[in-house]
Amino acid sequence: MKLVCSRRMLNFLEPEKLTDETPIDFFSWCIDFQMINRRKLVFLMHAQTRFCVILYGLTKKDFTLAKELFPLAIFETMIFMGYPFPLVRKYCEALGEVTYSPSKDRKLIAQLYRAVMHALFYVDDNLSISSRNQVGLSKQLNECPVGSNQWKIVHFPFEKMEQMLWVWAGIPLAQTGGIKN
Questions:
Q1: For the CA atoms of 139, 142, 145, 147, what is the dihedral angle to 10 degrees?
Q2: What is the model's pTM?
Q3: 4 close to 108: Cβ distance less than 8 angstroms
Q4: CA nearest 162: which of 82, 76, 43, 93?
Q5: Following DSSP, what letter does each residue of the chain receive, concatenated?
Q6: How confident is the model over 104-125, as pLDDT tens digits?
Q7: In this structure, how many other beta carbons lie within 10 angstroms of the beta carbon of residue 71?
């Protein structure tokens, strides 16, 4: 799992080892945070699909457990969105070691900041203070359209993530049937 960090996240984490920015692949996620009620609201955004996973109340100590914490949060969010269990399990098991890298792609970070701003709009209604993984807020965000190329190309993150999961698993899209919400 490659975590492409915003400058603010790199300053907060101060990782001992940074990898050079490698090409964005199916296991790359962007990460940033905002402070809400004196706690961190952490945003993970899939670099290719803009699929978001949101966590609340993480501390710096929690990031030492990133190898377990982030795949579990991704797993819970994908299951909540209605993705097939075997497909989600296979993806989460394939995430592997967590590596941190700085981002040089300004468009990617701009998309992440847009997702953060969009999520902050829904925080009042959907933030569950008692839960670390904010699946309701993530679902709200993943069902909003995302545009690229000046909104000439529009997609929904949860649909694109599902399509890419099926392609990654080697199953033709015609056989999948799609998500049943």
A1: 160
A2: 0.89
A3: yes
A4: 82
A5: -EEEE-HHHHHHH--S-BPPPPPP-TTEEEEEEEEETTEEEEEEEETTT--EEEEEEE-GGGGGGHHHHHHHHHHHHHHHHT--HHHHHHHHHH--S-EEEE---HHHHHHHHHHHHHHHHHHHHH--TT-SB-HHHHHHHHTS-EEETTTTEEE-HHHHHHHHHHHHHT--GGGT-----
A6: 888 888 889 999 999 888 888 8
A7: 19
pLDDT in tens, 2-15: 999 988 999 998 88
- Determine the Cα–Cα distance for residues 133 and 55; give it in Å rounded to an integer: 5
Burial of 79: CB neighbours in 10 Å, binned 0-12, 13-18, 19+: middle
Tally Cβ neighbours within 10 Å of residue 44: 22
